[in-house]
Queue: 3 jobs
Job 1
Amino acid sequence: MIIKSTPQITPDCLEGIFEYLRNDRSSLFSCLLVNRLWCRLVVHLIWRDPFFCVKGYLSDIIQAYISCLPDTSKQIVINEISNTDEKTLQQLQQQQPLFNYIKYLQVFNSENFNIAFKRWYEKFNKPYENFNITKLLIDFIFKECSILTKLRIYVWDKWGIPLNKMNFDLLFNREKEGNCLINLKDFVFIFYSKTKSVELENSFQIAQNLFDNMEKKSNKIEFLEINFRGQQPPKKVDQSVGNLIKSQKNLKSCKFIEYWDPKDPSIYKLLLNNSSLTHLNLSLSYFHQSFFEGLLACKNLETLELSRCPEMPSHLVNFPSKGSFSIKHLKVVMNYPAFNESLIILLHMCNINLRKLFISGVDETIIDAICLYNTQLTHLSLLAQQTIFDPPQSLSVLKDLTHLKLANIQTYIFSEHTLTYFIDSLPSSLQHLYFNFNINTNSLKIFLNDCKIPLKSLEFHQSDNQDDEVFDSLVNYKKSNQNVCEEIRLFIEYPHTFSLNAAEEAKKHIKIILKVLRNHDLW
């Protein structure tokens, strides 16, 4: 008699399955409990980034790490939290981990650790007044973790783990594991200090030493963000940052907000000479000629984000004649009418290469420039601080436009006379339209009745005077266009003035969202 054995999935296949579930914490925790093999294969996925999608249990993560400490270090922890009941102290001393969780760590985020330590101290009814245990544990983590792929350091003035409590040298000069940051892909360093002090100078030196070590030993960074706010670092720190950028072989995305002297061209040359760079996020108070020359030369740069659009120097007004940028996605978070000329020159140089555009601070002049220079846009997001499309302006030249989001901070974006003209001027290519401002019932009905473009999705916002007639209009539109229209979303802010029965009936056909903050861009 031949007994057929049940087919078994090999550990290699299981690892591939579990890796596919890496962002599904609930499923991973379930797999953890199946058997010993599954537990061994899953545990490293959970503990490589222990704070991912975890809102509770923060103190338990710290406790698990403390359990990995040697006995002498555990005794230091116990001494620090003396006056705790004897049973708890005994558990701390005797607790042994099932795994060495520190070995699995790949993502170190100082902000997450700081919050978790605060919760841990609260568990013992202790104030989080010093960082003795924090330093003890972080030093041990830096000595014992195998490979970090993400390193994120956040120091917000007097909040956060101080730099002198994190010995970064332990990441590089280790007897057993070697260089822990050799495969680092993601590096964020944000430091904010209000006042000058001796400690501040020490922090700048620690940051410089970290950047210098990374220049030599971390050359695979793909995302880099460095920001010093409040007190600016000395030039030698700038030089170390520049050398770090220069040493990178595969830098794809870079973010610098409120950092270096905008009139110093060296940083632009270092950034924009990097042939792998595709995404750049900057805060500028001055447009330097080297910045524009670098953008012209940087052919692989696809996305440019500016937190503000500064004034354009007079000698750069005719710069568009020198060529076009390769940029496909442009985001300008803050534009003022006084600097419209700067933004128009930027739009001119992006020309027809531009596909996605978001601008906060739009008037009719900017809309005219978009329709003149950027006629191959597919995504357009405009946040106005005044009434636009008055006098009437047509978007019909944007024949590739599929997504349009219009927003206004305070008032209605159209005048009484321009809504109908706006509807008629929409390009036939449009598929998704978002009105991210308060639209009254009458205007809503006019739009739904007059718009003949087969839209796949619609979004409306109402902050006052909602009535049941709004639901009726939207439901009727959805039913009439059910072969094309896939989704209608209505965002409603408090106080509500509609009947609950009407809302429940409307939810069968449209999506109604309450108490949601407005999102003005399509990025």
Job 2
Amino acid sequence: MSGGDGRTSEGCSSGGAREVSLPVVSPREGGILKSRVVTWEPSEEFIRNNHVINTPLQTMYIMADLGPYGKLGYKKHEHVLCTLKVDSNGVITVKPDFTGSKGPYRIETEGEKQELWKYTIDNVSSFAQPEEEEREQRVFKDLYGRHKEYLNSLVGTDFETTVPGALRLFVNGEVVSAQGYEYDNLYVHFFVELPTSNWSSPAFQQLSGITQTCATKSWGMDNVAYFSYPFTFEASFLHEDESVGALPEWPVLYCEVLSLDFWQRYRVEGYGAVVLPTTPGSHTLTVSTWRPLELSPVAELRRFFIGGSLELEDLSYVWIPGTFKGERLSRFGLRAETTGSVTFRLHCLQQSRAFMESSSLRKRMRSVLDRLEGFSQQSSIHNVLEAFRRARRRMQEARESLPQDLVSPSETSVS
């Protein structure tokens, strides 16, 4: 590691010092709307092409003149009681609906004196004959059929499916906020690292991004910067290893929080990482961060006056670097301090043939999905067993260090 004027550092491992290079990240290009969102003056052709069902209607209004005696015929005293619409299929629409058991409708007039009028709308038509009801059902069936055909034409038939044994992951995410940091005017650099085995992403896919610089505001005891920065990415997992003991790795989201002041001095405020959720749906993740620390007053003075601080050359060192091939990754000698946290909101979608309703396919394809659903459970069980082994090993070491007469007093008395 080095000071603010350089961007080099060394991560520590069990085999000694290791040098890695910082991944090249390009800023996210801002999107520009290609068309207008709202068409204020639509043409006739635009209306015909963009409405779901374009059916000619005939409209009739039932109105009442509620003016005072001797002042009838003024438009300001006219009120619409009911609207009737009839289309070419013979469907009648009544608005508002028939009163029924809801009670009468109310109209309050304003003028010399305020009046309250109540009225009801009742269906006094004779009951429909069986032939008319059957014709009505055919009309509804035809109407819904045309609506379904229209929706199918919008979706199309070219729906892309995955290959057997594959899982596609779509993530629509948002960098919500960052809080608890020392300096103001924060921005977040983030990227997603895919495991080297069986994971891939499209060539055009950008797995990194940088938010805008955001000033903080006081919220409770913390200073919070709200970014609301959206991002999206897609990745694919191809399951090839069918062995029972093989557990798939999952993508990791890394983030680096930096600050930029008025004099264009930047400082690293913290590093953090989190594994992406293994289940589809909406997830809100809070990532705690830390930053390297140098126990020297000179380093803190340099950070305050001229900016810059100790930095990680390889951001994946926050988690387990993908290039690491050993059994244990040692961070011994790396001094750090806890800083703030970053909040992410992720909407995850998963696509796989294993989601099909065919039970035979589910039984035959003992694939990634079943294993991924139990990944978190197996991981927690593994942690519990590992903690139990460590505790048992410490008990055995403590037992061996005790005098023999205390360990087995019965044997001592017999001898």
Job 3
Amino acid sequence: MSAPTDTTTGAEPDQTDLDAAELEAITRKFGNPRTTIWLVLVAAIGGYIMMMGMGTALQLRLSVINEELATLVFSRATSLSALLMLVVVPIVGALSDRTLSRFGRRRPWIVGGYLVALLSFFVIGNTTSSVVIIAAYIIGIASAQAGFNAYSVIPVEGVPGNMRGRIMGVMGLCGALAMSAGAYIAGALVDISTVLLMTVPPVLAIICALPLLVLYKDPRHDREEIPQGGTLDMFAHMFVNPVKHPNFGLVWLSRFLAGAGMAAFLSFFVLYLIIRLHMTPSDAGAMAGRLSLMSAPVSILVFTGSGWISDKLGMLRPLVALAAVIMSVGLVVAATSTTITGFTIAWMIFAIGQPMYLTVDLALCAKVLPNEADAGKDMAVFGLALNLGNVLVPAIAPTLLGPASDNYPLLWGVAAVLCVVGALLMPLVRGVK
């Protein structure tokens, strides 16, 4: 969405004119962006509690059932679910781009994904069968991710580019606070009710999404406005060609490497507290909440500061690279720690790098999208960069951790190397600061 060239003077419009034209076009189609921002942020609170809290809830649920098998079952559940998401999420993104419903393109997929997730997690809270838990988690988290990805397209298409850095920063802040809230909720409910442990996060996601679902102007699109072609054409263009769009490919690869580092740290730290530091499941859940709460003020500063810098200075690549390096330092400290004090220091370092990365990385993804009409599908493909890490890391982690499931120096050392490699890719991205 850009203003046309001034043909009377031959001069190119300045950035202010371009921003004003984009604002006008988005307001006409999707409603007032400032209203959209508030609706998106409210939905982010519950959505992030679900997406970032279910892993902790599942670890605690499995530890209550059988601590010795918890790591193996958790790894299988998370790796298989992420593998399914590799297929489901881009398909749902492409289908949402092509949805002609009178309820809009994104709304039906958010509602459907969240409701299926709630039902699946309810099943986990009512069974002790590892097979049933794995199957229900695969369906539930894939559905939740599909709904969340449909939601995450809204700040891309309904908010002007010069506002996205700040909203992504606040969304990331919601994610950091949601991690703390999710850990506290899980720690508080693990000894009270396994059903509530598994269902409160998706219920909160649905409640927080209600204002967005009701008030956001998610317009019905005509056939001329959606990506053209039939089902076969949709599948043929499901993924972006990295040779034709090298910036997209490089940013995707960097995101995958950093995402693998995040998955190695955040998916296994509760089990680290239980197995390596010998905490009970309830104590580990409470400690996870305290760690998240301790890092929240730092995350607030990093999210808001990095979002402001990226908007004001247009700096994206250097901040993404710096964030990846900081995460690698946190992983190295965690890999060498043997006490809760050492791990707390590692957590605080990681709490600087991760929010910075998630804030600026999303803005960078939006900058390198090949085609606005395919925004839902392409953002879903970017989401796969993180999900693929969630496939490979849990699958490889049991081997790296060893027979006793306690070789965290190796697991987190490898994760640190991946983050550094991701940072080294940033100078290769062209045309973006």
